[in-house]
Amino acid sequence: MTRSDRPNILLITADDMDAGSPSSFGGPAGITPNLDRLAADGIRFTRAHVVAAVCQPSRSAIMTGLVPHRNGAEGFEPINDGVTLLTELLADQDYELGILGKVGHIAPVERFGWDFIRQMEELGLGRDPGKYGAATAEFLAGADGRPWFLMANAHDPHRPFHGSADEAAKWPEDARGAIPAPSRTFDAAESTPPGFLPDLEGVRTEYAQYLASVRRCDDVVGAVLAALDASGQREQTLVIFLSDNGMAFPFAKANCYLRSTLTPLIMRWPGRIAAGTVDERSLVSSLDFFPTITGILGLPVDEDLDGLPLQGLLEDGEELARDTMFTVFHETSGKRRFEMRCAQDRRYGYIWNQWAGTGRTYVAENMDGLSWAAMATAATDAPEVAARAEFYLDRAPEELYDLSTDPFGLRNLADDPAHADVLNDFRQRIGDWMADHGDPQTKTFRTRILSRSDVRAARA
């Protein structure tokens, strides 16, 4: 394969960005000008998902093309020995390999064979656009004519959010002073939170802080893309942007809800992907990047991967052969296990909470900060907030949502007789998927769910 047949690959990730935050995905006007320009130059997917809504499992799945229990990184463990890494295949094709930020969140680090590494501390705690731009320029100059793969990982909008008390508590003043402020900040009064959160003063305040961090992430994206343009390699580069999971608020990150795994996916490849394209149908997974990149390079197809190649979709508009999206959750960053599985199609979403009903109470990092505290306070006088908070802590073993009418998952239909057939259909879909993929929770799911008489009757 000639050099011209091997595109450069720039994978840019946000840390904990909600799929609805960029302006081009329905977010506040003007919040993400750089992402919006990138979307205008490429394709924007509105039904793209990561496979697991927490950092290390999500990123490990991207780099292996395998779901977490198959690559070994269900929580914050390293990828299993013997699992092929994307960078290993790229190194065999003489690619220069670089990573900016989040270095330890795909492990073991030494196995990835990075030629160029810049840690969070070298990038203004992962939040300095100028340092990301300079590091990108340095990496591109060092590639010296070889094709390259750069994984540029912004640490925004991960907590602590810009201007928050958490930020002041976590980092001393001199460290905070070294981090540039976002190019735009937001007022709580104008910051309406997404519909899966109650509209409370504390939620609005924290959401405004989060939006400022989203803007700084966009500033980082702009700096990285400007360095690419300055290098003269824009036309030879496939750019992929996504978030590793949803925002670190209740009912998002560290769960299996729609906004836990839905990601603002953008891909740009001049001359190969039509500019200004919007795909509102394809159920694209972050697992698809691995077989797509290896397919572009003409490498043998690995039938054992869990993703699908996207070349036909990207270049010829072919239908992607996926009608159900499966996502998982295993472990929080605090190493608390809350096993969850989800199946979604273009209308419904089904969630199985393995831990619900066992007496355990959910707790995760998405409950830090102002929003959960505001919900807990409001619950004393607002029955609807109290019910929402109580459900979040305890859950139901099964959740079913009609996402066409209830996109924020506010009304659980699992006990609705009118949706019994839909419920049984999704039970079977997820049970089959778990069995086919060797999911360690398959036996438990079969015992607790698929052995129930209503499922047997439906299958008969």
TrEMBL record:
<dbReference type="InterPro" id="IPR017850">
    <property type="entry name" value="Alkaline_phosphatase_core_sf"/>
</dbReference>
<keyword id="KW-0378">Hydrolase</keyword>
<protein>
    <submittedName>
        <fullName>Sulfatase</fullName>
    </submittedName>
</protein>
<dbReference type="Pfam" id="PF00884">
    <property type="entry name" value="Sulfatase"/>
</dbReference>
<dbReference type="InterPro" id="IPR000917">
    <property type="entry name" value="Sulfatase_N"/>
</dbReference>
<comment type="similarity">
    <text>Belongs to the sulfatase family.</text>
</comment>
<feature type="domain" description="Sulfatase N-terminal">
    <location>
        <begin position="7"/>
        <end position="298"/>
    </location>
</feature>
<dbReference type="InterPro" id="IPR050738">
    <property type="entry name" value="Sulfatase"/>
</dbReference>
